[in-house]
Amino acid sequence: MLKTVAKIFSSFIETVKTAKPSPKEVENVLSDFYLQLIAADVAVETADAIVNSLRHSLLEMDVPRFGDREAVLKEVLKKSIESLIKVADVNHVLKRVDEARKQGRPAVILFVGPNGSGKTTTVVKLAHYLRKRGYSVILASADTFRAGAIEQLETLGQRAGFMVVSQSYGADPAAVAVDALNKASSMRVNVVLIDTAGRTEVDRGLLEEMRKLKRVVKPDFVIYTGDALAGNAAVQQAKMFDEVVGIDYVILSKVDADAKGGSAISISHSTGKPLLFLGVGQELDDLEDKPAEKLLEALGFA
Ligand SMILES: Nc1nc2c(ncn2[C@@H]2O[C@H](COP(=O)(O)OP(=O)(O)OP(=O)(O)O)[C@@H](O)[C@H]2O)c(=O)[nH]1
Ligand SMILES: [Mg+2]
């Protein structure tokens, strides 16, 4: 997990730990480091931010005579990465669900993202997460587009013990979502999670449909699910989804299978949208609600 970036970090520390480099050496080391980060799919603006925050420390760093330069440098790098990984407190989401409950309505969370990014799997994992915390949840299959999508959510959802509201392929996704909302209201269910079809910037019709869905269901939150394996593309797509539909949070999936780590350290910084969870496997419990801790640990800062 995130081995490439972790290695780039440790070899950077190795290079600069022994003696205080001259300004010229600092620039050489940093430009090398920068190129390695870009090659590992770190977004350009994020690599810039890391390098800029390190430049000052490398030039000005004042380690006591017998001080441990390596430990100080590692701490500086850790602080820099920590400040870039913006996370959301899941309690904020739970509080909103409580407020909705007090108003006598279900909270609604709309999942969006590109094809195959992990939306459907994550919907079921989040339902499980919420149920463990005492909330009742139903799922809406508003992906009426991709062959097999309805059966996939029905299978995964029902196996985990959730009610799945669906219609037929080609049905209006907004109609499915409204149907689910009505059922949730009459059954006094706390949360409705809406699964949608994967889409890209070339699917104009699908993007418009997503906007309509948002207009109709007025979700409490829109969550973008990105695939860590897509690297920088996951970051660019998140920006596109934010422009087109508006997103509140990011969940990055498949972090367990991501050998590089570029998207994981860039996505919240680059999009300005906080990371809510990391998907770290295909089981129901593989949803990590402390993304920053988990990423820093994988990057060797434990
Ligand atoms: N290793 C790993 N695999 C995951 C994770 N999340 C999802 N997957 C797998 O990724 C694949 C795609 O997941 P889906 O949930 O179907 O993705 P989707 O975004 O709903 O896909 P579309 O509906 O086709 O757009 C499936 O094989 C999942 O099991 C994760 O956190 N880790
Ligand atoms: Mg899906």
Automatic annotation (TrEMBL):
Its main location: membrane. InterPro entries: AAA+_ATPase, P-loop_NTPase, Signal_recog_particl_SRP54_hlx, SR_rcpt_FtsY, SRP/SRP_N, SRP54_GTPase_dom, SRP54_N_sf. It is found in: Cell membrane. SUPFAM superfamilies: Domain of the SRP/SRP receptor G-proteins (SSF47364), P-loop containing nucleoside triphosphate hydrolases (SSF52540). GO terms for molecular function: GTP binding; GTPase activity; signal recognition particle binding. GO terms for biological process: SRP-dependent cotranslational protein targeting to membrane. One of its GO terms (cellular component) is cytoplasm. Residues 274-287 form the SRP54-type proteins GTP-binding domain. It is a peripheral membrane protein. It holds the Pfam family SRP54. Keywords: Cell membrane, Cytoplasm, GTP-binding, Hydrolase, Membrane, Nucleotide-binding, Receptor. Belongs to the GTP-binding SRP family. This is Signal recognition particle-docking protein FtsY.
